[in-house]
Amino acid sequence: MTNFSTYGTLSRTTYTTLKGYYLASAGSLTLAKMATAYDSVAIGNDSPDIIATTKSLWSTYESLLQPTVRAGYTQNGYPRMNAFGMVSGTQGMAGQAGFDVLFFRGTPVVKDEQVPSGKMFFINTNYFGFKGINISGLKQVNFKKSNDGVPLGVPGRVPSTRGFNFRDMMSPVDQLAEVGHLIYAGNFISENPRLQGQMVGLT
Q1: Quick one: 58 and 111 in the same domain?
Q2: In terms of residue numbers, what domain contains 34?
Q3: Chain centroid to CA 170
Q4: Together in a domain, 30 and 104
Q5: Tens digits of per-residue pLDDT, 155-166?
Q6: How far is CA 39 from CA 6, 105, 130, in A?
Q7: For residues 10 and 19, is the Cβ–Cβ distance under 8 A?
Q8: Which residues face 109 on adjacent strands?
Q9: Which letter does DSSP use for residue 201 in this model?
């Protein structure tokens, strides 16, 4: 996000709002490093609403939280039984380890197979997205109306997404078939890169 000196031909040195947080060769994942990254991309009420990373780093973050789980058991007491059987309102002792969902400062931490190894992204989706463009010579996909009361180009009441391009159906040589191409073209952009960040080289 900031490992290039310019963004849309504009210098990140001159326009500091174009410079997000970037930590190269981050090394071992720690809560302190995550806190620094989070603080660096948060301004006022704007803060990351998703933290994306690899499965391996997700599990590493999970391991950093395990002491909190043990402390919670000690603080709240263990499920127990007395001489008359199970104590009312409690469950028998059972083994439990691992989390289904993880958060950092209220922000969900998600694992994704498509995240490159060693990376963790701090994303504010209010200022980050994919902007489609039309390709000259191709038709923009026009989703058919669902009924006579809905205009062409909208499935139900949802407008067609810009950037879906379609090449007309063609017949391949010596085949009783037709082939077309649906091409989605565009770029990932951020209206405010200052609110985005990443750490790379994490272990």
Answers
A1: yes
A2: 6-70+97-129+191-199
A3: 37
A4: yes
A5: 555 556 678 888
A6: 23, 11, 25
A7: no
A8: 51, 102
A9: S
